[in-house]
Amino acid sequence: MAHVLVIQRNAHLAGDIRLEQVNGRDGPVAKAQLTAISNVRWGSGDAREEEATAILWTLWGAQAENAANFLGKGSHVNVVGRVRNHTYEKDGQTVYGLTFTCEEIDYLDTKARTAERRSRHEFVDEMNAAERAQGIKPRS
To answer: In the list 25, 49, 82, 138, which could disulfide-bond 128, CB 3.0-4.6 Å?
Structure first.
């Protein structure tokens, strides 16, 4: 089956990466999913428009583990991958979908920016834990 190449440039992650272990042909393998959002702007002046595109990417193996270790919400990336038609039948209805598999991912943030993002994220986690301990609904 042929694959279509997809390139998503200058995207940022909409949330944290979801990492899990799944059974592969040769045993357990890491699978990660991330949502990358990129914006396209066209026109000028009052006619300037912007469109956001969000793609749910799947990463596998070491690439998935590395992304989970080094990327988080707000990280800037370039992603190159492939898209496949994922159409199936469910309860007599045809369900149409697309799946996006990452082949290459470039981390665009500097080490300083990554460290700043992580410390900010850890601070929010600490605040949420303190609020939960006081019976306050944590912020997202």
So the answer is: 138
pLDDT digits (tens, 9 = 90+) for 50-67: 889 999 999 999 999 999
Contact present, 22 and 31 (Cβ < 8 Å): yes
Q: Which two tokens stand for residue 19?
A: 């990492």
Q: Are 86 and 97 in contact (CB under 8 A)?
A: yes
> What is the model's pTM?
0.75
Cα distance between residue 114 and residue 117, in whole Å: 5
- Specify the DSSP class assigned to residue 91: T
Tokens describing residue 68 = 């989970």
How far is the C-alpha of 60 from the C-alpha of 1, rounded, in Å?
20
pLDDT digits (tens, 9 = 90+) for 61-99: 999 999 999 998 999 999 999 999 888 899 999 999 999
- Strand 49-60 and strand 93-95: the pairing is unpaired
> Rounded to an integer, what distance in angstroms lies between the CA atom of residue 14 and that of residue 8?
14
